[in-house]
Amino acid sequence: MSGSEDSPDIARWLDVFPWLESTADTSLGPWWNQPASGPNVSKRHRHLEAIAEIAMSQLSRWTIAQLFPTADTGLSLDALGLPPRGLNMFTRRGYRTVEDIAGLSVEEILDWKNFGVGSVSTILEILADQAVADAATPEPGGADESVLRAPVLEKDAQTPVQPGVDASTIDDLRVVAEWLALVGLPDSPLFTQTLPIGTPQDVVRAKKRLEVLTSTAVLGAERALDAASILNRSIRKLDDRAIGILRDRMFADSPLTLDAIGSKLGVTRERVRQIESKARSALLSELGDDSGSPLASLAQAAQRTIHDVLPLSALLEEMPSLKHTVDTVQQPAWRVLDRLDDSYEIEDGWCASPTVEAARTATATQIEEFVDGYGVALVASLDFIDIEPEDRKRAITAEWLEYCGYTIDGDHLLTRTQSVQDYAASILSVVGSPLSSDDIIARFAVERNVRSLRNALAKDDRFTRVDRDRWALSEWGLDTYSDIRSLIRSELTSNGGRIGLDTLIEKITSKYSVSPSSVTAYASSAPFETNDGVVQLATGPREVRKTPQQTRRMFRRPDGWSIRVKVTKDHLRGSGSVAPTAVAGILDLQPGETVQLDSPLGPQMVAWTGIQPNFGTIRRFLVDRDIAAGDEVFLTINDDKTFSVEEASEPTGEPLTDALALIGVAPQPTPSDNYKALCAAICIPDSSGIASLIGAYRERGDTDISDLLIASRDSLETAEAAVSAPEVESADVDDILDLL
Q1: What is the SS3 string spanning 678-712?
Q2: Are 17 and 131 contacting, i.e. CB atoms less than 8 angstroms apart?
Q3: Which domain of life is it from (predicted)?
């Protein structure tokens, strides 16, 4: 592209990625109008990260070709410098060049198995970087052949020049300096000063050439040494034996022992130690502040960049040459510096001064100064990461805190998360308003049971229940919620014992998340009654509507009552379940009361705190017996107030056997015993007759059993006859002979 006469002839981000203006975050200003090949490596990397994020979050259905229109499609994927994992993923699918993947969408790549978001983001950043480079490379024979990546710029429309410290560069410096002096800015920095409007074009072009001047252009390729080259040069001053010892000991990921190296070199372990010590001292002498060596400058720059704590990735962004391999010891430059310099430590991807453990301790000390009474602090209030911009500093601070074992909730740090109560208190402190149990659990970084949370909060005086299932911190001073029955009782007390149903509904539903139908149901059940739209306390005790004998799926046993239920996923999750009203009768349970029954697996709760009685969780029994959803079980309440759970037998296809299984009885020795068991289960006399037996089961709602009894009628009639026939006393043989 060709730039205007008063702006650098360098491609903007928007020129390479035309979709940026409508998708990028505007909070940092229109950065897409800035040159894409600017000298600030850190800023360039942040923009590439932003481009990758937009591609994944907003344009995931776009193809690679649509996202990166300037990319060289003929370029081999091997040449892009993709991470090995990413290159392998493409290679296994037969993709070799940028052209091969041009038709792939980001969404398709994200769907690949074992290919995480982080890997895809890295690949998109590399492709974006390459697109910038390709946009800066002129097409052969094209009209615009300016090299936008520098160091080559147009001096004029016809004459390209190679920048460097030669007469032309000195001329450029003089042209710009003379102009600034001429307009009255003699002390302004040459490279950062914005030229005044109306500056002659020869001055503008001279300044452009100076702004893109590179180190290589100034020093020459053979003199532009990077960190790895400098370290290599220092290490090569040692003899080969010393280099080998440093490689195997000081710089190795898994250092060899002195004895192992001594055996390999044919010397004593003490001699190995002496050589290692002398070689290390030689290298350390070049790191000293007064040495004036490039190595010392490099080490000091790393120390200043790290400050207290910094991710290794951020250090490498600021000093990319530290990524390069030091050939003599086959380690990256950053690791060689780390092993030599004791002023900081690099571990698990973090750089810290003086050690990672010391930095963690300092972090904990600083945190204690900022947390509130619930162990909560703003991440932004903590200051041990020296990096810009501010939002990146917060993000890296949060990463460091998580590495140190703390929990992060949005912009807040939580230090007290060991118990569900502490964790919930921290969350409420962060949010600042009441939350439901589900909302609190949703913010937990670990899985917790909602029921357990409710029980824990109810027992902790730091919390107040302000609605049916909404919790607040007690210090907020909000009104405490009671159950619906208590709310009705309170309103009756406030209104002289009687209140209109409509008024009651309005008062309760306007303050709490309770449905009108729930208020109506409670107002019409014990201990209240509603007559002609007026609610009051019931004048007499509520009678249980059905006896156990009349209750479907409830059967009498010799020493108690059993209820047959089908196991659901809610049972397996630990939820309670509705109990027949008849259960209240056999336990003498009144509305608002709770009883605990003994069982082999601990106390079993039965409560009447709602409209109907309910069983507490039976999950432990189901787990103990490995019972699955869909199976049927019998919940047995024995006359001695104990509780047990047993599995129902599977259907066999034999009607009478299956009918007995549905009442929890095994087949009996004789047909008459089977008939008696069926009668006893619903408490009718065994003289009632088969027709009455079948009718009784159908009337109580057990049609599945009555249908099976009809199918077994022949067998049952035989048993009925045997039961009703008069008994004949057995006679002694001698008595019979006397009669003869």
Answers
A1: HHHHCCCCCCCCHHHHHHHHHHCCCHHHHHHHHHC
A2: yes
A3: Bacteria
β pairing state of 407-409 and 412-414:
antiparallel
Asked whether the beta carbons of 598 and 591 are under 8 A apart, the reply is no
CA distance 323 to 336: 11
Q: What is the pLDDT of residues 464-519, one digit of tens each?
A: 988 878 899 999 988 887 777 778 888 888 888 888 988 888 887 777 877 888 78
Global pTM value: 0.45
Residue that the structure tokens 């790191």 belong to: 287
Segment 212-258, tens digit of pLDDT: 666 666 656 555 567 888 888 888 888 889 888 888 888 888 888 89
- pLDDT for 151 equals 31
Give me the sheet containing 528-531, strands edge to edge. Answer: 498-500, 534-537, 528-531
> How far is the C-alpha of 358 from the C-alpha of 198, rounded, in Å?
57
CA distances, 346 to each of 215, 349, 555 (Å): 29, 7, 71
List the end-to-end C-alpha distance of the chain, in Å, as a whole number: 136
Per this entry, what is the length of the chain?
Answer: 740
Bridge partners for 311 per DSSP? 350
Tracing tokens 């940028």 back to the chain, one arrives at 98
CB 146 within 8 A of CB 9: yes
Torsion of CA 564, 566, 571, 572, to 10 degrees: 120
- pLDDT (tens digit per residue) in 128-153: 888 887 776 554 444 333 222 233 33
Hey, is 457 helix, strand or coil?
Answer: helix
Contact 20, 51 (CB under 8 A): yes
The token pair that represents 313 in the structure block:
């990735």
Report how far residue 62's alpha carbon sits from residue 663's, in angstroms, rounded to the nearest whole number: 63
Banded pLDDT at 593 (limits 50, 70, 90):
confident
Distances (CA, A) of 221 to 56, 216, 295, 520, 547: 38, 5, 19, 88, 99
Q: Which residues contact 163 (CB under 8 A, 6 or more apart)?
A: 150, 151, 152, 153, 169, 209, 212, 213, 214, 217
SS3 labels along 474-526 = HHHCCCCCCCHHHHHHHHHHHCCCEEEHHHHHHHHHCCCCCCHHHHHHHHCCC
607 Cβ contact partners less than 8 Å away, ≥ 6 residues apart: 576, 593, 594, 595, 613, 614, 616
Q: Are 115 and 109 in contact (CB under 8 A)?
A: yes
| Burial class of residue 542, CB neighbours in 10 A (0-12, 13-18, 19+) | middle
CB distance 180 to 189 below 8 Å: no
Return the pLDDT at 626. Answer: 86
Distance CA 150, CA 183 (A): 29
Task: Spell 659-693 as b/e; 16+ CB within 10 A means b.
Answer: bbbbbbbeebeebbebbbbbbbbbebebeebbeeb
